[in-house]
Amino acid sequence: MCGIVARIGRGNATETLLSSLESLEYRGYDSAGIAVQNGSGVKVHKCSGEVSDLKSSLDHEPHGNMGIGHTRWSTHGPPTDENAHPHTDSAGDVAVVHNGVIENYDELKAELQENGHEFESDTDTEVIPHLIDEYRSETDDTETAVRRAVDTLEGSYAIAAIVDGEEAVYAVRKGSPLVLGLGADEWYLASDVPAFLDHTDEVIYLEDGDVVVLEPDSYRLTDAEGTPVERSVETVDWDPEDAGKGEYDHYMLKEIHNQPSSLANTIDGRVDDGEISLEEFPPGTFADVDTVQFVACGTSYHAALYGSQLLRSAGVRTDVIRASEYETATGPVDENTLVVAVTQSGETADTLDAVRKGADRGGRTLAVTNVVGSTIARESDDALYIRAGPEVGVAATKTFSSQAVTLALLTQRLAEDVPEASPPGDQAEMLETLADLPAHVETILESTHAEELAREYLGSESYFFIGSGLGHPVSLEGALKFKEITYEHAEGFAAGQLKHGPLALVTEESPIFAICTGNADGKTKTNAIEAQSRGAPIIAVGSADNPIADVAETTLEIPDTHPVWAGLLANVQLQLVSYHAADLLERPIDKPRNLAKSVTVE
Ligand code: F6R
Fold first, then answer.
1. Engineered SS bond to 465: which of 152, 205, 478, 528, CB 3.0-4.6 Å?
2. In 10 A of CB 594, how many CB atoms?
């Protein structure tokens, strides 16, 4: 986890570093810090808390044309001022920011301490500036010292370092993301593109082992052996406005409201005259696949459950495995197994680990992700992009919708290609109705009474979400969203499972959201009525004529559509309920406690 940034060029770096860090706060917000070079030493400013706390702790704008910055999600050591990055060597000449985990830091620290190095923090990162300092005393060349330092590290890292008296930023990447931004007369480094999107859309996605030296007028890129490497310059097609909050109070609300356009982008050009047209995957691409294994975490896991139901109903053998459980939960894997990693960020450590294990066992790998150039996209055999645009709110919203639609389209291609599978009979109708999905979301956004409902049930003991068929993954997603941003107790169940235990928790203080997709709603109704007879208020989430409407207190209404898309519309209503409940409870919606958007530790 954590976000790192660096900038070198003309003019003062501080403002850019601080605003870049704000764009990366979704990666962690336990502490923040910057270090700038200003001709009279390396100046470090850091504190626990958010970037806004760092800003208000600065009594002047630190001056320097180059610097590094960090926003932290704690792994080694609590979120204190001392543990905030940048970290320095004993003399304060070398400052380093780091995203990743150094596994052998204990032994390195002991050796360095024996050599007289003094440490101030509990972090694994602090060994890095001390190592660079140690090797600088053996060679005059900082680049060589940086290379020797990283050679001793075990684990994953994206590192940026500055050194007193040198107009240069040194950076290395292994196992954690790092992107180089090429501005008109300045260079940027960051864990993710939104950090510098205001300044440039020209980027180089660095590869593992790459070492970069940025100087004010040039940059040098070499591999781990020191051989110069060429990396292609790509143009990012994200609008800088996509990465900002705009007129909204929270990124989450903005991203919920962005769904008509993000979904239109996901669909664009992929359905042509009633046929699937996945540019990257022409017909026949998956002719040798006999089993599909989805691996994913959290919200992406729910999207994978959604996709897997569609795939199974088309007759394709399918497993869905929580990525963190892959080691023990996977069945046989061979060259006919397609391991599909579903991950918004493309950096989730558990998912990366699962997909690597799947590849080691001989499987073919496919990443379904939002982030071009992410580790998973580069490591997998193929990548299919969900094209949702940048998502900053920690709670995933628009990316779930785009993941589910992308998986539904992938399902159609697989069902056409995989021997003995066949697309469902109503494929034409399903694809035809997909075009209306963005407009249907718009209708919900304009007409919803989610806020009123959130207010009515505020203060309940628990919130339950039930659904059957495609309503089941939506019930799980509805509950996950609710708990992560409101901190209230919420659980999702397959409707028929309620009576096998959870019903014991049901009281008049536990509203039940019953999701109707137009398919398999009978079970949802029976179980909702059973809960209602124990006093629970029932809220139907479905079309106006959903079968639960007549017994429910109220319906959160969705436009009529094909059952495959209905669950996604129901989910938009549930996103809004969660958002408004959290807002009424004054929770930090975009930065829920203990969480971060991209979980790069196992
Ligand atoms: C919940 C949420 C998380 C992520 C999970 C996987 O709102 O965002 O559950 O879905 O951490 O992240 P990705 O999709 O980046 O692999």
1. 478
2. 9
pLDDT digits (tens, 9 = 90+) for 245-297: 889 999 999 999 999 999 999 999 999 888 888 878 999 999 999 999 999 99
> Does the pTM exceed 0.70?
yes
Rounded CA separation 10/16 (Å): 12
How many other C-beta atoms lie within 10 A of the C-beta of residue 209?
A: 15
pLDDT (tens digit, 9 = 90+) per residue, 219-242?
A: 999 998 899 999 999 998 777 677
The CATH number linked to 508 is 3.40.50.10490
Q: Mark whether 257 and 182 lie in a shared domain.
A: no
Residue at a domain's end among 383, 409, 435: 435
Pocket test of ligand 1: the residue of 348, 352, 482, 571 to mutate, having most ligand atoms within 8 Å of its CB, is 348
Question: What is the chain's mean pLDDT, rounded?
Answer: 93
Residues 143 and 54 in one domain: yes
- Do 523 and 468 meet the contact criterion of CB atoms below 8 Å apart? yes
Query: Residue 568: which domain range?
Result: 448-602
CA distance linking residue 595 with residue 28, whole number of Å:
7
pLDDT in tens, 389-441: 989 899 999 999 999 999 999 999 999 999 889 887 788 889 999 999 999 99
Q: Which atom of ligand 1 is nearest to the CA of 297?
A: 6
Q: Number of structural domains, the chain?
A: 3
**394 and 539 both lie in a single domain:** no
pLDDT number for residue 414? 95
Contact 13, 36 (CB under 8 A): yes
Q: Among 597, 598, 600, name the best residue to mutate to test ligand 1's pocket (greatest count of ligand atoms within 8 A of Cβ).
A: 597
DSSP three-state, residue 158: strand
Sheet holding 186-190, edge to edge: 42-48, 31-37, 66-72, 3-9, 186-190, 179-182, 202-205, 234-235
Contact 80, 32 (CB under 8 A): no
Which regions of the chain are under pLDDT 70? Answer: 240, 601
Residues with CB under 6 A from ligand 1: 297-300, 343-345, 348, 351, 395-396, 480, 484, 598-599
Neighbours of 138 (CB within 10 A): 10
Model pLDDT, residue 76: 78
Question: How many Cβ atoms sit within 10 Å of the Cβ of residue 543?
Answer: 20
- Is the same domain home to 176 and 316? no
pLDDT of 74 reads 79
Answer whether residue 441 is part of any domain.
no
Which letter does DSSP use for residue 212 in this model?
A: E
Whole-number Å distance between alpha carbons of 299 and 492:
13
The kind and range of the H/E element at 296 are strand 291-296
What's the pLDDT score for residue 426? 83
